[in-house]
Task: inverse folding
């Protein structure tokens, strides 16, 4: 299957899951909010657990169906991945949501706040890649 077809199918499935969650439970499909609600003991644990299991299991299922790892091996060391994860967590708190909440659900609702947040996410990602690859010479790879 051509990569753009599988990417399109993945995007459609993400969009459908966000619409389904909103229609069924009135909830935004923001991964950071779903995970933090699970960690803080929100009363609606079952759907949060099911959603997060699906997020984690989907790449494994794809790898089994395609008999290859479509994502590839990590290109940085574990300490860099942990640091990046902590920075993303800090950023989601600072930005009042994550890329899935703002970028998928908020942009679809034409929320100005989410449009701005998503633009800042993309700009920050571009700047980070530029600094690490071109100014620091691939630090951590």
Result:
């Amino acid at each position: 299957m051509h990569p753009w077809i599988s990417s399109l199918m993945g995007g459609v499935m993400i969009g459908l899951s966000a619409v389904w969650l909103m229609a069924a439970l009135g909830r935004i499909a923001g991964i950071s909010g779903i995970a933090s609600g699970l960690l803080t003991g929100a009363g609606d644990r079952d759907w949060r657990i099911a959603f997060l299991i699906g997020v984690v299991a989907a790449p494994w299922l794809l790898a089994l169906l395609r008999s290859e790892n479509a994502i590839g091996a990590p290109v940085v060391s574990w300490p860099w991945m942990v640091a990046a994860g902590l920075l993303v967590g800090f950023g989601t708190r600072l930005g009042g949501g994550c890329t899935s909440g703002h970028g998928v659900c908020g942009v679809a609702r034409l929320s100005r706040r989410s449009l701005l947040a998503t633009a800042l996410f993309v700009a920050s990602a571009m700047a980070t890649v530029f600094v690490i690859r071109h100014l620091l010479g691939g630090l951590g790879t």
